[in-house]
Every structure is written in structure tokens, then in C-alpha cells.
Amino acid sequence: MEPAKFKVEKALVIDLYPVEHIDPVDGEEVHRGITELLECSKVSPLDLQRISKFLSPDDDDPDVQRAALQLLGHAAEWENENFAKFMSVTFDSVAHLLSSLDFRVQWGALDVLKMFFWSGYHDEGVTSVVPSVLLHLQSPETDVQLASVELLDAAARSTTTELVRVVVPTLPTLVQLLSSKCIDVRDAALGVLIVSARTSTGSNIEELAEAVAATLPALVQFLSSGDIEVEIAVLEVLEAIAESRNGKLAEAVGSTVPAIAQMLFSPHTRGQISALKVLEVGARSDTGKLAEAVASTHFRAVEGQIIRSNKMFAIYLKVSYRFEIKVRACGNGDDSG
Predict the structure, then answer these.
(1) Is 193:171 a contact under the CB 8 Å cutoff?
(2) From start to end of the chain, where are the E strands?
(3) What is the pTM of this model?
(4) What gap in Å lies between CA 246 and CA 23, rounded to an integer?
(5) What pLDDT digit, counting tens, does each position of 80-132 carry?
(6) Handedness of CA 309, 310, 314, 315 (dihedral sign)
(7) How do residues 296-332 score in pLDDT, each as one tens digit?
(8) 333 — alpha (psi -120 to 50), left (phi > 0) or beta?
């Protein structure tokens, strides 16, 4: 059966997928809520206050809830001013749907909440979604997991304290997702960790810096994952943290230097270079413990290994007594490739 489409305006066509059975099936009548929502979809701008009434968690028809969520999503995309105007009216209703037993409703609610965050909504009540987001990060449904991570990505990129605080308690779970078999979930989790690391370096939210530092012992375990893409992403997180002016963060990176130095033996040139970048940043750090940790690494012992592992060129570094690192490219005399 083809989905029903109702034109709202020239730039917008409402397609009520993934709602099924919106036309009579086997003699059944269309749910009254669906009928009303279809009427709502014909109005421009959309009547979001009326639509929000169909988001009640007490409604026993998930198709109605999903249709209402989809209309909100369309409003966020095509009627941003209208969507922003009613965010305070619709937020709580959407957040309540995170507790739905229908994973499709969960996904729809997470997707719309992400749009709230992208639109700058940062009422004090936003942290109320954290328990549900933590639960959905561990969902057996990868679509729900991915939607949860994408919501956190939107929050992490925000400049508002309230939204950044949504991310703080989820960081340990995001590290666990680096072992996900779903590449999209894994990559999205890495993205949030990188953004959080960069945000924490200049943030005045002390709990974010502490939460990022607390993830490091688990994070460095992935430097021996055997997946070069994951290893490089983890090194990117560590590099962002090493640049921090926050002393606690920089000291935390210092404890990971031995694991970072092991990446100099990686069979992948990209892995070696990424490790060298972290060590270079660490050696220039104003935090003595981090610079000392870098300086105490026996680079002489690995220099030859680095050079021999590359046919075209080698990146190597030397640490002076002033804890300065110099990185240069040099050929090994083999231009054959």
C-alpha cells in the first residue's frame, strides 16, 4: 500500500511513514487520531499546539504518536520559526515518549529531541531526558542506539551549559559503544567523545572535564583494538584533551603516555603519525606531569622501528631536556614505494 501524502506547502510534502494502515484495511476504519493529524498536516504553518495533544504517553496507539512526532520533525525542518515558538509547549510531551514500549516511538522521540537541541532549546528541564537516553544507548535496536548518540552529539556541540550537562553522565556508556558491531553507532560515539574532549578544554563546566578525564582508562584500551580507524579516533580524543588548559585533564593524559607510545610500533603510518601528534602536544604542555611523562618515554629505542616501518618517509621525534618535540619528515633512501 502506498503511503498517503498530503501537500502542506510547495516545499513540504508530509509522508506519514513509518505509520502503517492509515487507510481502511480489511473493513477497519482509520484511527480518529490519524484522521485529525492528517487534517493538521494540511495547515501551514502547522498547528503544533494541537499536534502536541497527540503525543500523550497515555495514548495506546503508537501509530498516532509516531505520526505526531513526524509532523513535529517536519516543522523543525521546514518551519523552524514556528517550531522554535512552540518548543516549550511540546518538549515535555516528546520527552515523555522516551518511556514508550514501542521502539519506533522511542526512535521518533529521540530524533525530534535532537532537533530541539539543534534549535537551541536549553530549558533547565532538558537534563530530565538523561535516564532515558542512558537506557536507550544500550537498546538492542541499533536505530534507537544511533538516535540516542546523535541526540548527544547535538547537545555536546551546544554552547549552553544545560545541554552540555546532558552529555556528562553518558560518557562512560559512549566509550563502551566503541566496541559496537554497528559501525555507524561506533563512529557516532567517537564523534561525541571528540567533541566533548574539545569542549572540555575550554569549558567552565568542571564536571565535564572530570567526566572526560574519568573515561581515559577505558578509552586507552581501544588503542590495542586492532581497528586502525578506532585507534586513530581515540588518539584524536587524546590529542584534544592534551591541549587542555585544565591541569587535571592534562595530568590524566600523562598516565596514558605509555599506551600512546606503543602506537609508534603500529604497522600503520597513520597510526604512528597520530601518536606522534599527541606526544608533540603533550611535550609542549604547560602541565609539568604531562610533559615529563612524554620526556621519560624512550624514543631512541623506537626511532629505528619507526623509520624502518615506512618505505617513503618516516616521522620521528626527539625530546630535548626542555621537553620540546620536533617532528620532521625524512626519506630512508628508498624511493621505489
Answers:
(1) yes
(2) 5-9, 12-15, 314-319, 325-330
(3) 0.75
(4) 59
(5) 777 777 787 788 888 889 988 889 999 999 999 998 888 877 777 788 899 99
(6) negative
(7) 775 544 555 554 444 333 444 444 333 444 433 334 4
(8) left
